[in-house]
Amino acid sequence: MSATAGTLIREWRQRRHLSQLDLANRADVSTRHLSWIETGRSRPTSSMVLRLCTQLDVPLREQNQVLLAAGHAPAHPEHGLADPPMAEANRALEAILAAHHPYPALVVDRRWDLVAANEAAYGLLAGVGAELLEPPVNVIRLSIHPRGLAPRIANLDEWRAHLAERLHREHTSTGDSFLAELHDEVVAGGIEPVTSPALVVPFQLRTEAGVLSFISTTTVFGTPREVTLSELAIEAFYPADEATRRALG
Q: How far apart are CA 100 and CA 122, in angstroms?
C-alpha cells in the first residue's frame, strides 16, 4: 500500500526532529490543520504540500512524491542529461571539468554514480577491475572494492571513515535507502576512529609518480528547479601538498 501524503509529511517532520508545533509555526499554519493533514483527515493543496516540504527541506524528487500521494501533479520537472532542456547545464559541467585540468574532477548523482569526469580523474583509475568500470560506475564502491582503488589508497581507514560519515549525513538528508546500503558496505568489518592534524581529510593515492595527496570540494547547482540538476554534485580535487602539485603540474 502506498504511503499517503500525510504519512510522508509526518515522516519528513520526524526525520528533521521537529514537533508539529515547530513545523506549524515555520509554515504559518495551525497545528490542528497540520495534524489533520498528517492523519489524512484533510487533503492538502499542492501549495500547502510545497510550503511544508520547503520548511522541511525535502529534496525535489521527494517533493514530487508527496504531491503525487496527495493527488497532485509533480511540480518539479525531471529530464535526462541528454535531453535538450539540459544542454546549457551540460555545457557548464563540461566547462568546469575541462577548466579543472590537470587536477581530477568528476560529476556524480545523488547515489554516487559517475556522470562525467575529466581526463585527470580517469587517469587515476589504472589497474581498476574492468567489472567496476561497467556503467553505472559507483564511485563509493570503486573506492572501497579490493579490485578498485582501495589497495592504492594510502590512508584507506581514514578515507573510509570520511565516506561513512558523509553517507550517513546524506541518507539523513534525503532518506534514500540506497545511501544506507552504501554506508553499510563502507563500514562492513568496522571503522576505526582516526585522528589527524589535517584541517580536512585528504585523499591519498599511490601512483607511479608516488603518493598523490588531494583535498576535495563539492559544488552543486544553485537554486535548481529540476530534479536531475538538484541531485548532481561536482567533486573537484586539489593538491594537498607541493609534491602532488609538482607531479600534476
A: 13
Is 134 in the same domain as 170? Answer: yes
Would you call 45 helix, strand, or coil by DSSP? coil
What is the three-class DSSP state of 147? coil
Please say which residue of 19, 39, 69 terminates a domain: 69
Cell of 45: 493543496
Nearest to 68 by CA among 222, 177, 227: 227
Q: What pLDDT does residue 195 have?
A: 67
> pLDDT (tens digit, 9 = 90+) per residue, 17-47?
999 999 999 999 999 999 999 999 999 999 9
- Note down the domain range covering 18: 5-69
> Cell triple for residue 122?
580517469
Pull the grid cell for residue 202: 585528504
Let me know whether 57 and 90 are in one domain: no
- pTM score: 0.91
